[in-house]
């Protein structure tokens, strides 16, 4: 005979409304969407009790609290599993989730690094490396990052990296979009990869990107392989320029592979390199 306590039924998370299957006997559960715990089948109406006490309404401290809560819930986003790439929707308040495809744990936290930090990070949240922060982790993977402090390890962002610091950057940086801020003055020792990179400050180093923009008063020194480069009036670029059809996939962004060199050299138009481009 089947044990009835092993039957599974739908339970709804009281925090975010996410529905998941739970054992009937389960006393508590963790929501797979927002990561908060709840009692799936409590309070159970007790049939023996004639007069049931009214449960107090859920505590809502203030209009502000309710408003904040509302916005947190609204900020749901689609995230991808690190292991199997399956996508799922998570609510803004969640700090972790479990992949519905492969059951892998997915970190959704934001990290603010204000001192030395060397553990590796793999989150769908954001990373803020503050001015006093020193990030020595060999691998940091996150959604977006703001770099104001010392970055020594490798950094990959699914979305945007904003560099707002000066000095040497020893690790590899790759992202969909990279912004070298107006006050930044950096020297990258490893090749920087992005779909688009916008230089508003000063940078030296090698770039592989689809699209490179050197804004006015900005300077870029180093070799560039790109599909397109724009040097605005008053901007400065010096180095080798290879214009080629390059496709950057997520895997390439992560693994720092060599570009398909022959293809790029073939489409390399004559006279493009080396030639400093003081656009004035
Ligand atoms: Zn939930
Ligand atoms: Zn998965």
Detailed description of the structure:
The protein is built from 3 helices and 28 strands. It is mostly beta strands and 280 residues long. The protein folds into 2 domains: 73 residues, no CATH class; 170 residues, no CATH class. β1 and β2 form a beta hairpin. The chain is elongated and about 75 Å long.
Short description:
This protein has 280 residues and is mostly beta strands. The protein contains three helices and 28 strands.
Q: Topology, please?
A:
Blueprint: E1 8-12, E2 19-23, E3 29-30, E4 37-38, H1 63-74, E5 77-80, E6 87-90, E7 96-98, E8 105-107, E9 111-113, E10 116-117, E11 121-122, E12 127-129, E13 134-135, E14 139-142, E15 145-147, E16 150-151, E17 154-163, E18 166-169, E19 173-180, E20 185-188, E21 192-199, E22 202-204, E23 207-214, E24 219-221, E25 224-231, E26 236-238, E27 241-243, H2 250-255, H3 261-266, E28 277-278
Parallel strand pairs: 9-12, 10-13, 11-14, 12-15, 13-16, 14-17, 15-17, 17-19, 18-20, 19-21, 20-22, 21-23, 22-24, 23-25, 24-26, 25-27
Antiparallel strand pairs: 1-2, 3-4, 5-6, 7-8, 26-28
The structure holds zinc ion (2 copies).
């Amino acid at each position: 005979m089947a044990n009835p306590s092993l039957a599974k039924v739908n339970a709804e998370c009281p925090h975010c409304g996410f529905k998941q299957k739970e054992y009937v006997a389960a006393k508590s559960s963790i929501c797979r969407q927002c990561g908060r715990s709840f009692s799936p089948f409590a309070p159970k109406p007790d049939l023996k009790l004639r007069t049931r006490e009214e449960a107090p309404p859920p505590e809502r401290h203030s209009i502000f609290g309710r408003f904040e809560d509302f916005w947190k819930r609204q900020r749901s986003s689609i995230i991808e599993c690190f292991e199997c790439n399956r996508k799922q929707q998570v609510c803004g308040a969640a700090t972790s989730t479990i992949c519905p495809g492969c059951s892998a744990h997915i970190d959704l936290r934001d990290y603010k690094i204000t001192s030395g930090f060397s553990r590796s990070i793999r989150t769908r949240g954001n990373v803020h490396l503050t001015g006093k922060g020193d990030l020595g982790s060999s691998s940091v993977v996150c959604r977006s990052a703001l770099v104001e402090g010392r970055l020594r390890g490798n950094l990959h962002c699914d979305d945007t990296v904003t560099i707002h610091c000066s000095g040497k950057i020893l690790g590899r940086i790759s992202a969909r979009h990279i912004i070298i801020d107006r006050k930044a003055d950096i020297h990258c020792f490893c090749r920087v990869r992005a779909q688009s990179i916008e230089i508003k400050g000063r940078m030296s180093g090698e770039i592989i990107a689809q699209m490179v923009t050197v804004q006015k008063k900005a300077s870029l020194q180093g070799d560039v392989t790109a599909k397109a480069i724009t040097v605005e009036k008053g901007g400065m670029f010096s180095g080798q320029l290879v214009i080629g059809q390059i496709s950057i996939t997520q895997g390439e962004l992560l693994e720092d592979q060599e570009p398909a060199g022959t293809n790029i050299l073939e489409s390399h138009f004559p006279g493009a390199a080396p030639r400093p481009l003081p656009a004035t």
